[in-house]
Amino acid sequence: MTDFLAHLDTLLLWAFAGCAFVSAALMLVLRQPMRVAIALVSCMVFLGGVYGLLGLHFIAAFQVLIYVGAVMVFMVYAIMLLDPRDESGGEKFSKLLWPGIIGLSLLAEALAVGYWSDLPPAPRGAAGEPFDMIRFSQAFLSEYWLHFELTSVLLLAAVVAALAVIKENRRHDHG
Amino acid sequence: MDKVMMLQVLAASLFALGLTGVIIRRNVLVMLMCMELMLNGVNLSLATFAHTMGSAVGAVLVFLIFVVAAAEIAIAIPIVLLLVRRKRTLDIESYSDLKG
Amino acid sequence: MADATVLSLVLYLPLAGMLAIAAIPAGRDGAVRAFTLAVMVVQFLLSLVLYAHFDPAAPGLQAATRLPWIPAWGVSYIIGLDGYNILLVILTTFLGPLVTAGAFSAVTKEVKLFYAMVFLIQFAMLGTFVAQDLFLFYLFWEAMLIPMFLIIGIWGGERRIYATIKFFLYTAFGSILMLAAVIYLVWSLWSTAGITSFAFADLYKARLPLETQKWLLAAFALSFAIKVPMVPFHTWLPDAHVEAPTAGSVILAGVLLKMGTYGFMKLGFPLFPDATRLAAPMLAMLSVLSIVYGACLALVQTDIKKIIAYSSISHLGYVMLGLVSLDLLGIQGAIMQMVSHGLVAGGLFLMVGMIYERCHTRELAAYGGLAKVLPVYSVFFLILTLASVGLPTTSGFTGEFLVLLGAFNAAWKPAAVTIPVWVAGVAVTGVVLGALYMLWFAQRFLFGAERVPHGPVADLNLREKSILVILVAAVFWLGLFPDSAMKRTELAAREYQELVAAPRTPAATKLTGTLPAEAAR
Amino acid sequence: MNFTAVSIAMAPEHLLLAGIVTLLILEIASDKAKAALPIAVVFVAAASAAAAWLGFTGWTGAPFPGQFDLAPPASFTKAIVLALAVPVLLASKDDFGKGEFYPLVLSSLYGVCLLASAESFLTLFLGIELMSIPVYVLVLMGFRRPESAEAALKYLVLSGTASASFLMGASLMYGSTGSLALESFALALGSPRLLAGTAVVMVVSAFFLKAAIVPFHGWAPDAYEAASVPSTAYMAVLVKAGVLVAAARVFGKAPVAEPLAGLLAILPLVSIVWGNIAAMRQAGLRRMIAYSSIAHAGYLFFAFLGDGPGRFQAVVFYLATYGVMNILAFTALPSHPEDVERDRLENLKGLFRTHPFAALLIGMAMLSLAGIPPFPGFVGKFLIFKNVMAAGYTTYAVLGLVGSYLGIYFYLRVIQYMFMTPEAVSGGHAPSRGVAMGASLICLAGSILIAVLPGTFLARL
Amino acid sequence: MGLLTLIVVLPLLGFVVNGLLGNRLGKGFVSAVGCGLPAIAFAAAVKCFLDLKGAGWAPIAETAYVWTMVGQDSFEIAFWFDRLTAVMALIVTGVGTLIHVYSTGYMHEDKSYARYFAYLNLFLFFMLLLVLGKSLLVLFVGWEGVGLASYLLIGFWFGDMEKAAAGKKAFIVNRIGDAGFLLGMFVIYSAVGTLDMPHINKAFTSGAAPAVSASLVGILLFIGATGKSAQIPLYVWLPDAMAGPTPVSALIHAATMVTAGVYLVARMSGIYLNAPEASTVIAAVGALTALMAATIALAQDDIKKVLAYSTVSQLGFMFVALGVGAYGVAVFHVYTHAFFKACLFLGAGSVIHAMSGEQDIKKMGGLAKKIPVTFFTFALATAAIAGIPPLSGFFSKDEILWYALASGRGGSWLLLGVMAFTALLTAFYMFRLLWLTFFGKPRMIKEVEHHIHESPPSMTGVLVILAILSAVGGFLSIPHFLEPLVALPAVRPGMDAFHYFVVGGSIAIALAGLVGAAYFFGGDAARAAKVKASFAGAYRVLNNKYYVDELYDRFINRPLLWVSEAVFLKLGDRLLIDGTLNGLASVAQRTAGRLSRVQTGSLHKYAFMVLVGMVASLVWMWRNG
Asked: Which of D115, D171, D198 to mutate to test the interface with A (most CBs of A within 10 A)?
């Protein structure tokens, strides 16, 4: 049973990965932005699953919270706001469709060759001991609090920036 | 193929798919989403390595990427709004006035 | 030490003058002109002090200033006089006031900027001559381009933009390759001799393999050959001369072209002696080609300035021939020819400017019989023409004669370099061709039926006469009594000869000497 | 962790942050805050002074081991970069008398400072993003022409791609060396493993993208053209400086071996040629500067071929010379009510007659950018190519120099317009403005200082 | 300042004073300076001659100053006075002074009087430099300098383009010769290491100059001589040089400058004695020139042109003498020629003066009675040149004919034959000239005839003096005087017997010429006209001087211009060099356009470029990794 569970782990992992891949691929072919968004969301959720299976629960949580919860919601709003205006509807793909696809395959291959020929190092820690939330938090607040601070500066800057853009928007309205 | 390899390949694929999406899709919002996809690929790669090596730093970087991605989108969407105001279309090909 | 101060003063006076001009309020052109002339005269007088104090028998630098500048790169600030540059420095300071005065009535727009640029170019040219550090030299060498670019481009003729850009790009191309060679040279000096230095004196110590020498010489030579200019790198010169304002032409012909030959003499050849000796026959052929080619082209020009421009190409061919001959006579002759050409071609361009101010055309066909209308002008013109032809008693003869003599010496006798005898022989035909085009020019210009564009014109005024009297006096002085000048350059000529004649590839014996011993152990 | 050490070491950053906060408070407090410019200038200048002071006292240490450290070269770099920002800010008076421009510039500068001290990929990543994110907005700020948003989007998307590529590389590096410290890049450089190689390429590509190296340069001309003059100056100088400083940090003192050396030579070489040639026919000053900056990015990456120890010095020195001259050109540019008109090279015709001082300054800047001695641009170029040649890459150095020759023409064209052609008919240039002229004078003084005493500068870096 | 230096400097002083101040100080002053200084120079030369004699003919050397020192090599401005110099210096200063005096009358009306005298003094200065110079360098300075003075004086009336062109032609043709001279000088210097003429002669005679063949040097120097002394192929300038004022033609283009080549060869006899090949060339060229010029002179109608060709022809005689090693004889002919040819030219000047500037002998005739002094002196000089004994020309020409046959250094019957025939022609065309000018019916237009008058005493006086000198000059045996310096060649064995035959023959030839001329041109010259008609073709060739100028133009001048224009300028400069550069520039411009087109503004494309860049970089890393 434990064997099975272990295998179930792997199986789920593969399934999630496969689904994530399919969702990602779908993003390239779906016409409606909303559907693309949904595909992306599903991809993210599957990835969240993968993280969970890897034992990185907090990342999984953040993945769902920040990405799906914040970023994608924002995105979906934007789509809802803008999409009706997009009457063009015409071409889905740019003129560079085929070159792009060839490029895709080449790039993927180029990256993959890196892995294949040069396997990543074997897991160092015991397989059953992935670090948990507590260890991560400790590290984060002891070793990496600088980055925490810096992130806040960055968010501050982003807020100012976003405000500025919105102001421009407003100015545009008036002028 | 062991799972780490598989996940890394998946990460690479997501990255490549994202980049390709930026190249081949005309809709601006879709392009932005494809950018997110690239970052997701990166995240997956980092997370997997963090998992295999059991070190926290990769995970910390993933965390930072979340934040930055959110910030970028927060700026990108208003810019797109500005764009659309002008030409009323999301087709990026319409926005190629600067050239030469 | 006092001399060192004087030299610095001579060098920086124009720069100070340029800054001071900026302070003169706009619109007071007269004040600008007078001020510039005054500064230039003072500079010339100061340089005469240097000339008088120059010790012909003392080796090495005189009136030198040595300061560290960028120690990390081995760049130092060294300026000083030696036999190589003393005459060129005097030539530059001598022409300065003449150019300034000559432009009084010609330049009426942007007067301030014009004289600022004249000051700047004066500074850059002097700097090029007195710099004794390769980095410093290169700075001055390139800096000279900028004022010239503006002088041609702002105050030039119809096609000035084309001409000035051509001038700049042509010269800059050579400089870029030279820069590469400079860097390589200094680096290899460091890697072979362990010295990080740009000082000329140190660079002469570099021992480079022949192959390297060839490449570096090619790069240096290209840069210098463009500046000289040697055929086939000369096509910028006629355009630049024709379009440049008079002052520009005078500076160009008078001093600027000498920077090329000076570069060959001070750097190009002595730094890479083995390659030079190897290339000497080819260089001699190119020099002779320049002599003949320039002369032939001067023959078929219809623009007055172009004739003189092409004649410059021809005359500088002699300088190169003299330098390549590695014969003491030829080297000394080359130096004299440099100075002489500066005076003569500079004078001719001044005179063309004077007539252009009056008649507003440079088309030779428009003129005729000036000797009747402008007798004084014609006398001076004829004197300079004949000096250009190299008539004995003028400075042109001194240079040409000694160069040809040196070339023959080198061709005939076993020497460090081989110059084919026929090359030296062909060089002599330049004497005939020179007479052909210059006299043809003078004849159409001065003699025959009177044809003066734009109506009756006045002969030279006092200012113009004074300029020309001074020039002509110098021309005759160097023609009749060249010894006092040549005494000052002799040591340098000898040093140059020795530097180029001695092999300087890395001593291969050292390596083979130690290796077997090590192998035995 | 010593709190005093942290506050001393990060004094420049803290000052910038204080500036941002002050500006925001001001913004909230009053709607038409004229004090924004002086406040921003004061804080940036103070930060620069602080950095210089740190450098002169020789403060060395790592308050956050493995994340953030400080040594005099880094301090001086910060000081130079921040000093360069002062004239940019001053020049912006007419364009952005108030508003978010200043906090955005200050936050971006914060990012640049961070880059100079970054010791790990995490810090570096944050620095890069902190530097870039405000710039997306700077591009469209003022919104002087309708295309600004388009340019901002292009920049954002490609910059995002660069970030992704950078992170991908970092991740692979993490995978192959197990650490995200900057030394791991040096390790990867030395490693024969393909994964490490891939990682290096991804990181280098990201730098190429951010620094606009051909063929990653697409965004640059458009973004430069669309942005307002101070923003363009900021991008061309400070963002580029940030990217290159980051790259220099990443490469460290590690020697560059052949396959990568080829990459670091060929693409920059192509950029030099491409940028210099494409600039020839540009009608707009900013687009021309964009292509010129593509070429300059090429020279800068050449520096990485050079010896490890001299690399940082060469890059920073070049950035200083290049930056000071670029800013000089932009600050001296007379203003014009129409942004597009201000940009047009045609309108520079006869500038010398109307604004002689401005024309002289722009002319100087052009010649310096072209690398004509005795202007400081030459010394910078000299240093780079000296290092490249000393590292044994003679052919690359010669090719690079020849490529740089191609650039002379279009710089000369600007001078030709200003000095040698009769005045443009349209005219309409506003007279030179006091503050911007002051900015030009600062640059002028700086460039003279660099030109006369390059040795003292070099000794500090 | 030594006496030799003084001789040289005096005319220079005249040049400077007249050139700078002449116009302001009036004609009297100009004449005084212009004639006075050469006269003093003549006196100084005489004094030197006496000193020389007093010193037992040991040469006087004098160094003015060191021109320059290069290493061990010193170039001195030094002078040298020996027997040869003495002869030349006396001729130059003597005849020169006379012609100056003559000029005061001839040029009296000219506006540029001062300029004229300045130039003439300048010429004398350079000529004396040439003659007195100790080294080839000084000689060369004078050599070039007289060319300059000649150029200035030929083109004296520069308002007329043709005259200016003649001056230019003279200068350039001379320059061609000078190039040869220079080459010779360089070769000598390379071989001997000095330009000091006494040294060089010594070196060559003692065989101390092995590195170089004397013939090469000899021929190179001779090329210089052909230029200055108007020998084939460089004689073409001399007839044109008649464009100058007539006294100039007398002084420069007859008496002094053109003999510089003869002087040079005689002076460098040390080389030629060791250069039989060069000597042969000289003799051949001299003979050919003499013959050719004489034939041309037959068909010329311009009084000065006839004299010019006669000068060329006489110079040919001198070179024949040089070629056979009779250097003294050549100098002897120089000496006699100076008198009679100067007299002829000045006489012609007087005629032209009388004829109000007319030079065509077809429009003269019957002048003998109207200008008797001119006629008598002219006739005497004609007789002298024709070789009628006991006039001076007889002696010198007879010596030349004799050595042409008998010299052990290349004399031959052929040479004698050619020279004798030439002598016949000489007598014939000279008497033709005399007849057409002075005898027969006046053919000038009335107005001119009305104005005919004898010249002022300043001119006729000079004519008389020169006529006397040409009459008696031959009694001074110059070859004998020069014997210690340049020995006469040995007579070929068995030739002594022919001496009187040659003497008799030459007298006969002279008389035959006289009679022939009288026969053909006596009366209305109808016989001559008949001959001319029957040989119309030959006459045209001769009248057009064998079309040599045209040939030169076709084969040298025009090809040179064509090469310069079409090959160098159009093909070389414009097409190859500038064409390449402009081509590169336009390639750059076009590339710029193409690169701009890459920048389409499409974000897709930019992103794609990024992708391509990444993939390419990755592939690059593998390929090289």
From this structure: D198
Mark yes or no for CB contact D100/A158 under 8 Å: no
Domain boundary among D227, D252, D277: D252
Burial readout C218-251 (b: 16 or more C-beta within 10 A, e: otherwise): bbbbbbbbbbbbbbbbbbbbbbbbbbbbbbbbbb
Range of the domain at D59: 1-147+218-252
Contact A96 E619 (CB under 8 A): no
* CATH number where B57 lies: 1.10.287.3510
CB atoms E71 and C369 under 8 Å: no
Report pLDDT digits (tens) over C365-420: 999 888 888 989 999 999 999 999 999 999 999 999 999 999 988 888 877 788 88
Residue A103 to chain E, least CA–CA distance (Å):
7
The residues near D296 (Cβ < 8 Å, ≥ 6 apart) are D240, D275, D322, D369
Please report residues of B whose CB lies closer than 8 A to that of E611: 19-20, 23
Q: Do C169 and D416 touch (CB under 8 A)?
A: no
Q: How many domains are contained in chain C?
A: 1
Scored b (16 or more CB within 10 A) or e, E440-470 reads: bebebeeebeeebebbeebbbbbbbbbbebb
In tens, the pLDDT along C427-450 reads 998 889 999 899 899 888 888 888
Residue C518 lies in a domain: no
Q: What is the predicted ipTM?
A: 0.92
- Chain D residues 216-275 within an 8 A CB cutoff of chain B: 221-222, 225-226
Domain annotation covers residue A52: yes
Query: Is residue A117 situated within a structural domain?
Result: no
Q: Name the token pair of E312.
A: 């060329």
Contacts of A113 in chain D (CB under 8 A): 194
Nearest residue in chain D measured CA to CA from B49? D175
Q: Does A111 touch chain D (CB under 8 A)?
A: yes
Residue B10 domain flag: yes
**Residue D450: partners with Cβ closer than 8 Å, 6 or more residues away:** D320, D321, D324, D376, D379, D457
Give the pLDDT mean for C317-341. Answer: 94
User: In angstroms, what separates the C-alpha of E592 from chain B's closest C-alpha?
Assistant: 10
- Domain range spanning residue A27? 1-84+123-128
Domain count, chain D: 2
Inter-residue contact C238 to C310 (CB < 8 Å) = yes
Q: Which residues on chain C are in Cβ contact (under 8 Å) with E141?
A: 392-393, 397
Asked if E476 is an interface residue toward chain C (Cβ–Cβ < 8 A), one would say no
Residue D180 per-residue DSSP state: -
D389 and D405 fall within a common domain: yes
Q: Residue C87: inside a domain, yes or no?
A: yes
Six token digits for residue D363: 């002319």
The CATH number assigned to the domain holding A75 equals: 1.20.120.1200
- Contact, C355 vs C305, CB < 8 A? no
Query: In angstroms, rounded to a whole number, what is the distance separating the alpha carbons of residues D384 and D401?
Result: 10
Distance CA(C431)–CA(E177), nearest Å, equals 10
**Which of D228, D252, D276 delimits the end of a domain?**
D252
**C138 domain residue, yes or no:** yes
Count of pairs with CB atoms under 8 A, one residue in C, one in E: 144
In a domain, A62, yes or no: yes
Q: What range does the domain containing C225 cover? A: 2-504
The answer to whether the Cα torsion of B31, B32, B35, B37 is positive or negative is negative
- On whether residue C62 sits in a domain, the answer given is yes
pTM: 0.92
CA neighbor of E322 nearest in space, from E353, E358, E363, E276: E276
Residue E189, chain C, CB below 8 Å: the answer is yes
Q: Is residue B41 in a domain?
A: yes
In a domain, B100, yes or no: no
Per-residue pLDDT reduced to its tens digit, E413-434: 999 999 999 999 999 989 988 8
The count of domains in chain B is 1
Residue A70 reports pLDDT greater than 70: yes
